[in-house]
Amino acid sequence: MADTPMETLLKLFQSFKPPTLKGTENSVECESWLEDIEELFESLDYADDRRVKLVIHKLHDVAKGWWIATRRALEHRGTIITWSVLKTAFYQQFFPMYYRKEKGAEFSSLQQGQLNIEQYVAKFTSLLKFAPHIADSDEAQADQFIHGLNPDVFTLVNVGRLNNFSDSLDRAKGAEAGLLRQ
């Protein structure tokens, strides 16, 4: 795709109906937008420089204004605008540090509580990206997950130490099912 004309790439990109971003969405919606866009870029195997040129077509209203100002500031500083540079600026704008810290703290203190295992896993995985030191290690993920389980499930899961998240999840689902049958 490196030799494909930009007009052709844009038509193909638009044919997948990628979501737009107005910039008035909350942080979670902005994050979801970026994840959807990145997934599409990965599927289409677009190079970084092409991603920047394509994604700006999906920015509208406040987001478009933000990008125009950000691009000018970056160019004024002599910064080469790569996908990584754009994403860093995006995170600074739409995921302020307080939000990332808040979500990291929420992940660190996450407990199953009244959630069933499926709900707990959904919450766990949605917050995991805010704890990269945990996300990078399957064993650390398993530990964090197990320690957030309710005591009765924890006792059943923690027997015979598990070193990966997948096995911990399987055992937790089995433990919950067994407890519900009782």
Write the layout of secondary structure elements.
Layout (H helix, E strand, L loop, with lengths): L5 H10 L11 H18 L3 H8 L5 H16 L6 H12 L2 H12 L8 H12 L3 H4 L2 H10 L3 H7 L7 H17 L1
Helix pairs in contact: 9-11, 10-11
Q: Could you tell me the radius of gyration in angstroms?
A: 21 Å
H and E string: HHHHHHHHHHH
The number of strands is 0
Shape: elongated
Percent of residues in helices comes to 55-70%
Mean pLDDT: 89
The amount of beta strand, in percent, is under 5%
Q: Structurally, how many domains make up the residues?
A: 2
Uncertain runs are none
Structural class of the helix and strand makeup? mainly alpha
What's the main sheet like? none
What is the helix tally? 11
Task: Give the termini distance in whole angstroms.
Answer: 58 Å
Short description, anyone?
The chain is mainly alpha-helical and 182 residues long. It has helices at 6-15, 27-44, 48-55, 61-76, 83-94, 97-108, 117-128, 132-135, 138-147, 151-157, 165-181. It folds into two domains: 6-95, no CATH class; 98-181, no CATH class.
Can you put this structure into words, describing what you see?
- The protein has 182 residues and is mainly α.
- It has two domains: 6-95, no CATH class; 98-181, no CATH class.
- The protein has eleven helices and no strands.
- Helix 9 packs parallel to helix 11 and helix 10 (151-157) crosses helix 11 (165-181).
- The model has no long low-confidence stretch (mean pLDDT 89).
Feature tags:
182 residues; 11 helices; mainly alpha
